[in-house]
Amino acid sequence: MKKWLWCFGGIVIAGLGAVAALVIIVDPFFQYHKPLEKFPYLVDHQVNMNPGLAKNIEYDSVLLGSSMTVSFNTDWFRQYLGLTTQKLSYNGAYPKDQANIMEIIFDSKKDQVKRVFLGIDELNYSSEPEQTKFDIPGYLYDKNYFNDVKYVFNKDVILDYILRAAADSKDKSEWNMIYKPWWQDEHYQKAIVLMYYEPGPVKQQEPEIPPYLERIEENLVKNIIPYIEAHPETTFTCFYPPYSILYWNNVTRAKELELVLEKYRYITRRLLKYPNVEFFFFQNREEIICDLNNYADYTHYHGRICEYMVKCFESGLHQVTEENLEEELKILEDLASGYDYEAIYDDWYN
Fold it and tell me: I need a surface site. Which of 107, 167, 172, 225 has the fewest CB within 10 A?
């Protein structure tokens, strides 16, 4: 009986060792090493995969932000800026999400990061400073290898990201377009956008601005500014993504235009105090935001807009400074407040 138990125990231990070895060797979440050259990795889970990508992929710049950044092709950063850029997006990202990944980025790469491209969604900067969009699996974000049992013996990791990926490589990710949205070119058209768009509620009272700015200050001080201050060798290229004119329809219906403009003003001025910060403003580009054929819904834009923004990062076009900020905000205010929103629906299939 003892001999049988020893044999059984040996088999179990050997099996567990083989499973752990398989996960560690393939490492589909990139916790221990960079990707194997010929394995067809499926990179589709931002919360689980970003920390490993930040630790072990080779890069000299990063792209951070919400789903407004997922349509960027990182090859454009090499083409126009000469940078090897790693996309580390979080859909619906809050400032705390950016802090969590920047902690890993700068801990892993030290002074190797030349630029951080940070897409800023003003709405999320009024959140609780400790709020993240999704629960964070701490064992993938910390340095404690002992709690990695949740990774190396994870059924989903083994089945979905190793065995199924190896058996069917047609779903493997393109490294320059990880996390890309499911929309195809034919989904970016005015008719589809308007088909699914529902105007936001009409409100009668404007919101109080100070509480929002106080929360923004908390978020900046706790989640963004510490990394700017600690890494003067890194340029932080911040930008406001160009939501469509329908977004501004919602804002004006809710009587929040003054609030949103004040948020932009506050965030921009606060961060431009640092010499290693630069800002680009795309929200007031009428030729982009008023052409709904650039969008798949009322906020998400086509990759050609992303490429245009990378070109601007290279040329300096649409960069905002302390000197021209008010002028750029006035352009947006006039556009959003004076736009004929009802006319959007005229001939809406064209």
Answer: 167
